[in-house]
From TrEMBL:
It is an enzyme of class 4 (lyase). GO terms for molecular function: gluconate dehydratase activity; magnesium ion binding; mannonate dehydratase activity. It comes from Kushneria phosphatilytica. It catalyses: D-gluconate = 2-dehydro-3-deoxy-D-gluconate + H2O. This is gluconate dehydratase. Residues 128-258 form the Mandelate racemase/muconate lactonizing enzyme C-terminal domain.
Length: 403
């Protein structure tokens, strides 16, 4: 099964999404997600100039060899741009192999380890009451797990909070980076009240998650972990920037709140120290950004040895193609924890017809051959690319802070 054509389709049905389509001499095609939020065109250029020309004529069945060729062979290893390009190729090749076998992708990975995939949704509000209403809406829709984020009194804008009730938030919300303001003291004094209010109203049965988005220092994160213990979070996510990985040992020594990290990781080497030192509980590396199914499988298998479970990143800035592939992976992976889910816009759902289905707080990946997600190219062409950037974050005195 030789690769004859490779095309990169960029569209913006509500937000920018990049799709790689590999066609073969057998008439089958496979698709992969290559979206790197706010850096979409960098991946497109990498694919167009360095990857696609080298793929033509290769046997699409040789997934491992193609992965090694693109990673080992490149000399310039790792990095989000390179690994997203490799991730898209790998995802498209697994889609092709499963289609050629006439099987849903999870069968090729080793079959199902579970019947359905628990996801967490996003409840956001400008204040605690607004957030509680959104939690309510999620509970009524069947969710068993909800991430809660809300506005912080005294801070004008808060990461991860939708502009209007009932809407989803969009991280890349401006042409050039908007400037947000951050104040750790105000945040730390306030956010436990949100957890308390959720537990008071919804009891202990609901899984509760929270994302700090890399904004604390290790000792501040340790304090938040301790403050959160009475509300037994499912996880506290990205409590510090993860470049300094030994920092997690310090946090770990102070708190039993489970820790999740990894949505900005792109290699097993980003995950290794955290996993081997058992400093985290959930690894969030993504199929698109961490080199595809072939590489994330290695990460998950390393994690399994150390009781670390998967909790893949699943925001709207990963396309339905990544979501579909992730749900097949989640069906198989023995050390599954949870899957993030943010509903895509109606336009995106129409551009990417898919076999996965939501019911009762869980997803099933569907039974069609491949990963079960397609692209309607004619419709995609009606939504041209628009530059969009993630914001930056400053302290009140103007110091640039972590985002
Ligand atoms: O989904 C999450 O947990 C996020 O933190 C979303 C990120 O802000 C977003 O994907 C950045 O592109
Ligand atoms: Mg996050």
């Amino acid at each position: 099964m030789r690769i004859t054509h490779a095309r990169i389709i960029v569209c913006c049905p509500g937000r920018n999404l990049v799709t790689l389509k590999l066609e073969t001499d057998q008439g089958l095609y496979g698709i992969g997600d290559a979206t790197l939020n706010g850096r979409e065109q960098a991946v497109v250029a990498y694919l167009e100039e360095h990857v696609v020309p080298a793929l033509i004529g290769r046997d699409a069945h040789n997934i491992e060899d193609i992965w090694q060729f693109l990673y080992r062979g490149a000399y310039w290893r790792r990095g989000p741009v390179t690994m997203s390009a490799i991730g898209a190729v790998d995802m498209a090749l697994w889609d092709l192999k499963a289609k050629a076998a006439g099987m849903p992708l999870y069968q090729l990975l080793g079959g199902k380890s579970r019947d359905r995939i628990m996801v967490y949704g996003h409840a956001t509000g400008r204040d605690i009451d607004g957030c509680l209403e959104e939690v309510e809406r999620h509970v009524e829709a069947g969710y068993r797990a909800v991430r809660v984020q809300c506005g912080i009194p005294g801070i004008a804008t808060t990461y991860g909070v939708a502009k209007r009730a009932g809407e989803r938030y969009e991280p890349a919300d401006a042409d050039l980076p908007a400037e947000h303001v951050w104040d750790t003291a105000k945040y730390l004094n306030f956010v436990p009240k949100l957890f308390e209010a959720v537990r008071e109203r919804f009891g202990d049965g609901l899984h509760l998650l929270h994302d700090v988005h890399h904004r604390l220092t290790p000792i501040e994160a340790a304090r938040l972990g301790k403050l959160a213990e009475p509300y037994h979070l499912f996880w506290l996510e990205d409590c510090v920037p993860a470049e300094n990985q030994s920092a997690f040992r310090l946090i770990r020594q102070h708190t039993t709140t489970p820790l999740a990290v990894g949505e900005v990781f792109n290699s097993i080497h980003d995950c290794r120290e955290l996993i081997e030192s058992q400093s985290i509980d959930y690894i969030r590396a993504t199929l698109t950004h961490a080199g595809g199914i072939s590489h994330v499988r290695r990460i998950a298998q390393l994690a399994e040895l150390y009781h670390v479970r998967t909790g893949f990143h699943g925001p709207t800035d990963l396309s339905p193609v990544c979501m579909g592939a992730a749900l097949h992976f989640d069906s198989w992976v023995p050390n599954f924890g949870i899957q993030e889910y943010m509903p895509h816009s109606e336009e995106t759902e129409a551009v990417f017809p898919h076999a996965y289905r939501f019911e009762d707080g869980h997803f099933t990946p569907g039974e069609v051959p491949g990963h079960g997600v397609d692209i309607d190219e004619q419709l995609a062409a009606k939504f041209p690319y628009r530059r969009a950037s993630l914001p930056v974050n400053r302290l009140e005195d103007g110091t640039l802070w972590h985002w």
